[in-house]
Amino acid sequence: MEKIVELRNVSMFFRSRSGLLKSIVVKAVDGVSLYVGKAETLALVGESGSGKTTVAKLSLRLLKPTGGRIIFEGVDITYTPEKELRWFRRKAQAVFQDPYSSINPYMTIRQIVEEPLILHKVEGDKVGIVEEALEAVRLIPAEEYLDKYPHMHSGGQRQRVGIARALVLKPIYIAADEPVSMIDASSRAEILYLLRELQEKRGISFLYITHDMATARHFSDRIAVMHLGKIVEIAESNDIVNNPLHPYTQALIEAVPDPNPANRFRERKTVSGEPLNPANPPEGCRFHPRCPYVMDICRLNDPELKEIKKGHYVACHLY
Ligand SMILES: Nc1ncnc2c1ncn2[C@@H]1O[C@H](COP(=O)(O)OP(=O)(O)OP(=O)(O)O)[C@@H](O)[C@H]1O
Ligand code: SF4
Ligand SMILES: [Mg+2]
Question: For residues 13 and 17, what is the distance between their CA atoms, to the nearest angstrom?
Answer without folding.
Answer: 13
